[in-house]
Design goal:
The complex is a heterodimer.
Chain A lengths: L9 E12 L2 E12 L3 E6 L5 H8 L6 E7 L2 E2 L13 E4 L11 H6 L11 H7 L16 H13 L5 E5 L7 H16 L3 E6 L2 H5 L4 E6 L2 E7 L7 H8 L2
Chain B lengths: L8 H32 L6 H19 L3 H22 L9 H23 L15 E3 L4 E3 H23 L1 H11 L1 H6 L4 H23 L9 H16 L4 H21 L7 H12 L10
Antiparallel strand pairs in B: 1-2
Classes of the chains: A alpha/beta, B mainly alpha.
Chain lengths: ~240, ~300
C-alpha cells in the first residue's frame, strides 16, 4: 500500500443504511463513502447514530437493511464473525479491555486476518507506554493506556480499515495529543480510518473529510480544508 | 496402636481418603458447571444426569461390546460431549436472550427425561462395574490401606482439574474463552465464531461430567439415580466456591469432600449437612463465594 496515498475508488461504501435496535428505528438511510488511505470522521450530537453506524458495519447491530460494501463485498447479511476477517478492525467506545486478560493477552487476542499487520515491536514504538506492562491486568492500565491498547491490538491483525469510536473520550489533553500523533502515524502507514468524534477540534487535526450526522442520517459532508469556512454551519449542527 | 485426637488412625485416614474421593468427584463436576456457567450463564441442572449417562455408556460398552474401562474413559466423555453439543445447538442456544430461569428449567427437564429413560430401561437397582485388572489390589501405607483404584481416581481427577485450569488460565485458547465470557460481542467483532465456541464449551463441560461418571462406575454402582444423589452437593460446592470460578470449583470440591470425611469421624450425625452449613455461612459472609468476584 502506498504511503498515505488516496485513491479514487471507495474502500467502504454505505448506501441507504437503515438499522434497528429491536423495534426502534435508529438509522434512517445513512449513505457515505470512504476511500482507501483516508481518515474520515463522523461528527454529530449524542444519539445522532454515529456509534450505531459503526456497530452496523461490524454486524453487531444485526437488524439492518440497505448496503454496506467493503472492497466490493456486501456486508449486510454476512455472518458476524466473517466481517472482521475481511480486514476491518473495530475499537469500541468503551474500549473493551478484558479484565481477566493480561495486557499481553489483550494485545494478542484478535486473530491475524491478513498479512502486513504491525509487529509487536512496531506497536511498542508507536505506544511506548505499553512497553514492559505485558503481565499487568488489562484493566489496571490508565484510561489513556487502555485506549492505546484497544487501538494497538487491532494493528497486529493486518486489518486495513480501522473503525475508531471516540478515542479521545474522557482523556486528558496530553493523552489526546499522543493518540493524535498515533492516528497520524497510522494514516502515514496507509491505514484507512473512520473516526467517531465529539471533539471536532481534535478531528480537524487528523481528518481528510467530515460527515455530519443528525437523527440517523448524514446531513452534510465537509472537506477538512473547508472546515474554517463552514464553522458557523458546524456550530449549528453540533449545538456548540 | 496409637490414637490421633482420640480416634484410631485407620478410621481417620480411611474417612479422609473417602472424603478425598468424594471431593474428586465434586471437583470434576463443579469444574464443568463453572466452565458452563461462566460462558453460557446457564445453571446446568442436567449435569448430574450426564454424569450418570457417562457411567452408563461405560457399562453398556462393557456389557454389549466387551470394551473395557480404558476404552470407556475415551468413548464415554466423547459421547456425552457430543450429546451436550447437540442439546446446546438445538435447545439451549435459543434461551440465551431470556432470563436465567429458563435455562435452569430446560436443563432440569432434560435431567428428568434422561433419568426417567434409564430408569425405565434398567430399573433403579445399580449395575456392578468391575475395577480394571491393572488397578486391582492396594498398597499398605503403614497407617492405612490404600486401594489402587481409589488412588488412581484421586490422581486422575487432580490431573484433569489442574490441566483444565491451566488450559483456561494460561493458554491462548483459554484467553479466548475468558474474553468471550466477559464480552462475547467484542470477541465476535474480532472475527471469532463465538456461537461455535459456546457449543464446544458446553460439550467440554458435560464431557467432564461423563468422564467423572466413568471414574465413578467401579466405586459406586452404575444406577440411574447416581447423578441426583450427587448433584445437590455439587451445586452447594459451586455456590461456596463462587459461581463461574474455575479454581474455586476445584479447591472447594476437594476441601469440602475432606471436610465431610472429617465430620464423619468426629460428629457423624452432621456429615450429611456440613456442606450446607458451610454454604449458609459463606453466603452470609461473602455472597459471591470464596473465589467469586462481585458482579
Amino acid at each position: 500500500m502506498p504511503d498515505g496515498a488516496i485513491t479514487k475508488t471507495a474502500m467502504l461504501e454505505i448506501a441507504d443504511l437503515h438499522a434497528f435496535y429491536g423495534e426502534s428505528h435508529v438509522l434512517h438511510g445513512v449513505s457515505l463513502e470512504v476511500r482507501q488511505g483516508e481518515v474520515v470522521t463522523l461528527l454529530g450530537r449524542n444519539g445522532a447514530g454515529k456509534t450505531t453506524t459503526m456497530r452496523s458495519i461490524m454486524g453487531i447491530v444485526s437488524k439492518r437493511s440497505g448496503s454496506i460494501r467493503f472492497q466490493g463485498t456486501e456486508l449486510v447479511g454476512m455472518a458476524q464473525h466473517r466481517i472482521p476477517r475481511l480486514g476491518i478492525g473495530y475499537v469500541p467506545e468503551e474500549r473493551g479491555i478484558f479484565s481477566s486478560l493480561s495486557v499481553d493477552e489483550n494485545l494478542t487476542l484478535p486473530p491475524v486476518v491478513k498479512d502486513g499487520g504491525m509487529t509487536v515491536q512496531q506497536i511498542y514504538d508507536l505506544f511506548p507506554n505499553l512497553k514492559g506492562r505485558g503481565s499487568t491486568q488489562g484493566t489496571r492500565l490508565s484510561g489513556g493506556e487502555q485506549q492505546m491498547l484497544a487501538i494497538a491490538r487491532i494493528l497486529r491483525t493486518g486489518a486495513n480499515l480501522i473503525l475508531l469510536d471516540e478515542p479521545t473520550e474522557g482523556l486528558a489533553p496530553v493523552i489526546i495529543e499522543q493518540i493524535g500523533v498515533a492516528v497520524r502515524a497510522l494514516k502515514a502507514r496507509g491505514f484507512t480510518i473512520v473516526l467517531v468524534e465529539q471533539n471536532f477540534r481534535f478531528a480537524a487535526t487528523i481528518a481528510d473529510r467530515h460527515y455530519v450526522m443528525e437523527e440517523g442520517h448524514v446531513v452534510d459532508m465537509i472537506p477538512n480544508d473547508q472546515l474554517d469556512a463552514n464553522m458557523d454551519k458546524l456550530h449549528t449542527y453540533l449545538g456548540v | 496402636m496409637f490414637n490421633l485426637l482420640g480416634v484410631p488412625p485407620q478410621v481417620l485416614f480411611g474417612q479422609l481418603l473417602l472424603g478425598l474421593i468424594n471431593g474428586s468427584f465434586y471437583a470434576l463436576l463443579s469444574l464443568g458447571l463453572a466452565v458452563i456457567f461462566g460462558m453460557l450463564n446457564v445453571i446446568n441442572f442436567a449435569h448430574g444426569a450426564l454424569y450418570m449417562v457417562g457411567a452408563f455408556v461405560a457399562w453398556l460398552l462393557l456389557t454389549y461390546l466387551g470394551l473395557g474401562y480404558w476404552w470407556a474413559l475415551l468413548v464415554a466423555p466423547t459421547v456425552v460431549g457430543l450429546v451436550g453439543i447437540a442439546l446446546e445447538k438445538t435447545m439451549l442456544s435459543r434461551l440465551y436472550k431470556l432470563d436465567h430461569l429458563y435455562g435452569l428449567l430446560l436443563t432440569f427437564g432434560l435431567a428428568l427425561i434422561f433419568e426417567g429413560a434409564f430408569r425405565h430401561q434398567y430399573g433403579v437397582s445399580g449395575q456392578p462395574y468391575p475395577i480394571p485388572d491393572a488397578l486391582k489390589g492396594g498398597q499398605n501405607l503403614g497407617f492405612m490401606f490404600l486401594p489402587n483404584y481409589r488412588g488412581w481416581v484421586v490422581v486422575a481427577s487432580l490431573v484433569i482439574c489442574f490441566g483444565t485450569w491451566f488450559a483456561i488460565e494460561r493458554t491462548k485458547l483459554g484467553a479466548y474463552l475468558r474474553a468471550a465470557t466477559e464480552n462475547p460481542t467484542l470477541v465476535q467483532a474480532f472475527g471469532i465464531n463465538v456461537p461455535v465456541m459456546v457449543s464446544l464449551t458446553y460439550g467440554f463441560g458435560v464431557a467432564l461430567a461423563g468422564l467423572a461418571g466413568v471414574l465413578a462406575a467401579p466405586i459406586y454402582q452404575v444406577s440411574p439415580l447416581m447423578g441426583t444423589n450427587l448433584i445437590i452437593i455439587v451445586f452447594a460446592v459451586v455456590v461456596i466456591g463462587g459461581m463461574g470460578s474455575i479454581l474455586g470449583a476445584i479447591v472447594t470440591g476437594l476441601g469440602l469432600g475432606m471436610l465431610e470425611g472429617l465430620t464423619k469421624v468426629f460428629y457423624p450425625e452432621a456429615s450429611n449437612i456440613v456442606v450446607f452449613v458451610v454454604m449458609a455461612i459463606v453466603l452470609l459472609i461473602k455472597p459471591a463465594g470464596l473465589f467469586g468476584r462481585e458482579r
